[in-house]
From TrEMBL:
Source domain of life: Eukaryota
Name of protein: Nucleolar/coiled-body phosphoprotein
Region annotated Disordered, chain positions: 1-25, 53-76, 231-250
Source species: Glycine max (Soybean)
Amino acid sequence: MADDLFEGLPPPSSNTLLPRQQQQLQPQPIVVATNINDTESSAVPAPKPILKSALKRPNPTQPDTQAAAPKKSLKFKTSTDASEAQVIEAMQKISSHIKNPAKFSKAAKLAIQLIQAGSVKSEISDYFFAILEAAMSSSITCTDPSVRADYHSLFSVAQNTKEHLNKKQKNQLATWTINAVVANDLYTDDSFVFSKAAGQIKEAISNLPVATEEEDAEEAKSLKDSTVIVDEGGKTPATDNDNDGEEAQADPFGLDALIPNSTKKGEKLKAKNEAAVKIREDEEETNRFLKSKREVLITCLEIAARRYKTPWCQTVIDILVKHAFDNVARFTARQRDAVGKLWASIREQQTRRKQGKSVNGKLDVNAFEWLQQKYAGEKISIRHSVGASGDRRAQQWLG
């Protein structure tokens, strides 16, 4: 059969073509690409444009300000680049002003900044120690209410400099810390801080050695003769006489210089004398440290005893003074007498409180003693009824 299958049908239109066929029938634009190095031109078809979403297309006319702007960060300067000479000059100025009570607060804050900046080093520790020494030699005491907080802050932060101090300076700093930090904590209104300070005082008393008869005799002598005669060379006459006697005994006729082997002998004798002087200086420093530590602990006991009228302090003070009285042998004769008087005063006030008497005429008992007296005669049954009348008012309190 030779009939055409498409006979009688209308001619095909462009709408009936497939999309790919339409693209093949459409004329392609010609773009001339010219090479910069060659003069000849070649006709190549232009690439098809790739359509993107308008929301994702970057705007070239609008600069990226967030990427261009540098990130800002807040930084604090915690160290200083000052030279050693500048630090020494600053310490000297602080030492001269910290003695003045009106300038003490500002000078103490500057000293704390030097410590926190790491400016205190072993090479210049003497200049920093002079600041602490000047602070403790001020005309106003470290427990005065106007400077109490500044002293507490200064000597608390000064503990970070102990590694740069020598033995004598460390001992002195330990004594000053008890006076400026622990003693000031006894004035607090916080029961936890007060109890902690009392515990530190108890521990310090327990670490004291037992006082000797020599220390009692030295104390009596120092009370009788409060001043020590010192010659122009800065040594006591007794010390000079001892040294002269040793030298005279070592070389009574002064002939050691004429003997050839006397040089080595003289060096050995000199080293021996230096070792003896070093041992004697260490003993004197130990005795001085114990003496100052005992004195400041007595001061702390007196401060604590003056707060006995505060009800929540009474139990802690009772334990503290009783502990000092039990270890009274660790103090010297005059200090033993002071501890005995403090304990007698505390016992008298305890008796007055138990009897309901007080200086101001009010009932002077603490909360525990009041509750103890209140419920001492109460009858408690197995049915949780409290009191003879059988009421249940204290059921919640008793649990």
